[in-house]
């Protein structure tokens, strides 16, 4: 019989990576389309990426804190 590993699996790490990357991608896409609509490129696209990075790092910090508490 093989024992299950007690630590997190690959899927958990992939989930954390997706939670970090998705706000950045979403901010960039939303900023791009809003720039096209209001014709103020690249102001909103850059702002969306920066806001997405802040939100992504926040989500990464929260997830890693909860991950650390479980260990």
Topology of this structure?
Blueprint lengths: L9 H29 L4 H28 L1
Short descriptors:
71 residues; mainly alpha; 80% helix
Protein architecture, described:
By secondary structure, this protein is mainly alpha-helical. The chain is built from two helices and no strands. Helix 1 runs antiparallel to helix 2. It is elongated. The protein starts with 9 loop residues before the first helix and ends with a helix.
Q: Secondary-structure element sequence?
A: HH
Uncertain residue ranges: none
Counting DSSP E segments of at least 2 residues, the number of strands comes to 0
Instruction: Quote the distance from N terminus to C terminus.
Output: 24 Å
Estimate what percentage of residues fall within beta strands: under 5%
How many distinct helices? 2
> Over the alpha carbons, how many angstroms does the gyration radius reach?
17 Å
């Amino acid at each position: 019989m093989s024992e299950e590993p007690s630590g997190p699996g690959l899927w958990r790490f992939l989930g954390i990576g997706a939670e970090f990357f998705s706000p950045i991608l979403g901010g960039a896409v939303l900023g791009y389309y809003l720039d096209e609509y209001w014709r103020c490129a690249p102001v909103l696209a850059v702002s969306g990426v920066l806001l997405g990075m802040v939100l992504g790092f926040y989500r990464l910090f929260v997830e890693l804190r909860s991950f650390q508490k479980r260990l």
